[in-house]
Write a structure and sequence with these properties.
- By secondary structure, the protein is an alpha/beta fold.
């Protein structure tokens, strides 16, 4: 059974000092608004409404914590890049997100969700730049892979893998991996869950 099936919502935080105790093992999901982050979380946890899904981007504007067991948590970070989010909120998250990614000691890995049709946007790159220097693993889900032909999906996957390894993996000696994913077609679930489990259960 996938570890994330046990996830249950516990708290939302708006400020760094509102985060739960910095202890145990935590993985975070980040992604541009409307890239499919909430759908990916729901698919991987086999729960329909664990993370809020909306056709309107920009709805996740708090840091949402989900407890998996006593010392393991999943964290849903605010979607970034939605132009209609008020400037003061956007500025707030530009201060809070890097602090979370750089200072949270229990954060053992970062999942970045990217729409396969628009990977490695400027804001995706900013997330990588914030987190990669910590030398903790990063795994990228190229979501909505069902929207492209298999040939084009594989070509995009290869291009993103090469760029990730060169610019962040080699530079920071960080484990950076990439895979194809589709919540609609239920593709890539096993690989993603296996990666997450290896972070949360490193000795198994």
């Amino acid at each position: 059974m996938a570890l994330l099936q046990n996830a249950k919502f516990i708290i939302s935080a708006n400020h760094f000092n509102e985060l739960p105790e910095d202890a145990g093992y935590e993985i975070a999901f980040a992604g541009r608004s409307n890239a499919g982050k909430s759908s990916a979380i729901n698919t991987l946890s086999n729960q329909n409404r664990l993370a809020y899904v909306s056709k309107q981007p920009g709805r996740t504007q708090l840091i949402n914590f989900f407890k998996i067991d006593n010392d393991k948590s999943l964290v849903d970070l605010p979607g970034y890049g939605y132009a209609k989010v008020p400037t003061n909120i956007r500025n707030h998250w530009q201060r809070t997100l890097p602090r979370y990614l750089q200072e949270r000691q229990c954060l053992v890995g970062l999942i970045i969700v990217m729409d396969i049709r628009r990977p490695l946007t400027e804001l995706d790159i900013r997330m990588l730049d914030w987190f990669a220097p910590r030398q903790k693993p990063i795994h990228i889900l190229l979501t909505k892979s069902d929207k492209l032909s298999r040939e084009k999906s594989l070509r995009t996957l290869s291009e993103v893998q090469d760029k990730i390894k060169e610019q962040w993996g080699d530079l920071y000696q960080t484990e950076c991996t990439v895979q194809l994913f589709s919540s609609l077609k239920k593709k890539g679930i096993e690989d993603a869950n296996s990666k997450i489990q290896s972070w949360l259960l490193p000795n198994k």
